[in-house]
Design a protein that fits this description.
The complex is a heterodimer. Chain A is an alpha+beta fold. Chain A is built from 4 helices and 2 strands, in the order αααββα. The longest helix of chain A has 19 residues, at 12-30. The chains are: A alpha+beta, B alpha/beta.
Chain lengths: 110, 271
């Protein structure tokens, strides 16, 4: 019996490696809903301090590639952009204090 | 101070209900006041594994809806006075559970018991998130197998984000319980080893339950394995895990089925 198993290929290391690769990816993706939400909120807070825009006219997209991931932020700024619109709209004046979103983003891009 | 423990896994069929019954009974056998709560609304089975299926009158949903008082729904175990079961409803759907309702029931249970062990349904839907919502600690039941480990990882993520403790910025204490483990197959490289699973999930190990025929024997007759055959390898592993849950420092090992000599050695536990 023991001799027999010696000739069989050990499959546990394959399982372990597959899981490690998969979970490294999933840990980012599955928390992705929260990550994107956090990124959205904080990026908009920063931009909102300088420019006024319609919160509905913002698209944030994250694409994950094999070696590189991209974060795409698309904000439509109205043409009336000028001195008056430099006032931050209500609700976007909060401080950009939490750097958790940024560190996560760096990790995903690396 | 009452401890609320959720037994969860993500994947179905890994041994949540078996482990809930076995750990609940093991704690009760050591004198603790224990209630095991079935959160698997619509597909309850803890009553069957505990051998109380014919004694269910009211259930968790009835209590939440105010149809019955908590003491009316609690079923006292026939073998152990200090072990109780709060069954799930078989007919309602999982939406019948509400956050406020569950919170109220858990608060009331806390005044009556030392341990409140919540048997989570499989999956990551409402039933599972409500089962973990008010937990102080979690037992993640995992088989040394790829799909179970993956789902456990997902559940760990939920425990860190969706529980009341996580929302308050605290941490739910997490314990890994590896079930259906074959030492020989792991040694032969045919099964993920304990170290493999620990490295991947990186949460502390509560116990290793070896694959054992006694587990099926016990559920066949409606008895937690620790009550049905306290000397079996699985039971000894559950007793050790229960001890660690209480904070005892018990060396980790995988029990093997006992021979006559070992039976004598562990004989005292049978009483």
């Amino acid at each position: 019996m023991k001799l027999f198993t010696l000739f069989r290929r050990a499959t546990a290391p394959v399982a372990r490696e597959r899981l490690q690769i998969l979970l490294a990816h999933e840990r980012l993706t599955c928390n992705g809903a929260d990550l994107l939400g956090a990124l959205r909120e904080e990026i908009l807070a920063v931009i909102g301090r300088h420019v006024s825009f319609e919160p509905d006219r913002v698209r944030i997209k994250m694409d994950r590639g094999k070696s590189v991931s991209t974060l795409e932020v698309d904000i439509e700024i109205p043409n009336s952009f000028g001195a008056s619109s430099l006032v931050p709209p209500d609700g976007y004046a909060s401080e950009f204090a939490n750097d958790e979103g940024m560190s996560v983003m760096k990790r995903s891009v690396a | 101070m009452a401890q609320v423990v959720v037994v969860t896994s993500g994947k179905g069929g890994v041994g949540k209900t078996t482990s809930t019954a076995a750990l609940g009974a093991a704690l009760a056998q050591e004198g603790e006041k224990v209630v095991v709560v079935d959160f698997d609304v619509g597909l309850r089975n803890l009553d069957l594994v505990m051998g109380a299926e014919r004694r269910v009158v009211f259930d968790l949903i009835n209590v939440i809806h105010g149809v019955a008082k908590l003491p009316q729904a609690l079923i006292r175990d026939k073998r152990l006075d200090n072990l109780h079961l709060l069954p799930a409803s078989q007919t309602r759907d999982k939406d019948a559970l509400t956050e406020e309702g569950v919170a109220k029931v858990i608060d009331e249970l806390k005044t009556k018991f030392d341990w409140i062990i919540c048997d989570s349904p499989a999956g990551i839907e409402r039933g599972a998130t409500l089962a973990m919502k008010y937990a102080d600690s979690a037992i993640i039941v995992t088989n040394p197998e790829v799909s179970s480990v993956r789902d456990s990882d997902r559940i760990i993520g939920l425990l860190d984000s969706k529980t009341a403790k996580a929302e308050r910025g605290e941490r739910v204490e997490k314990h890994l319980l590896i079930t259906r483990y074959h030492s020989a197959r792991a040694a032969a490289g045919e099964m993920l080893s304990i170290d493999d699973v620990l490295e991947i999930l990186s949460i502390p190990l509560l116990g290793i339950i070896p694959e054992s025929q006694e587990v099926l024997r016990a559920s066949n007759v409606g008895s937690p394995v620790t009550l049905n055959n306290a000397l079996s390898a699985a039971s000894r592993a559950y007793f050790a895990a229960a001890g660690r849950l209480k904070g005892q420092n018990i060396p980790m090992q995988v029990p093997t089925e006992s021979t006559g000599f070992l039976n004598k050695l562990f004989g005292r536990k049978a009483a």
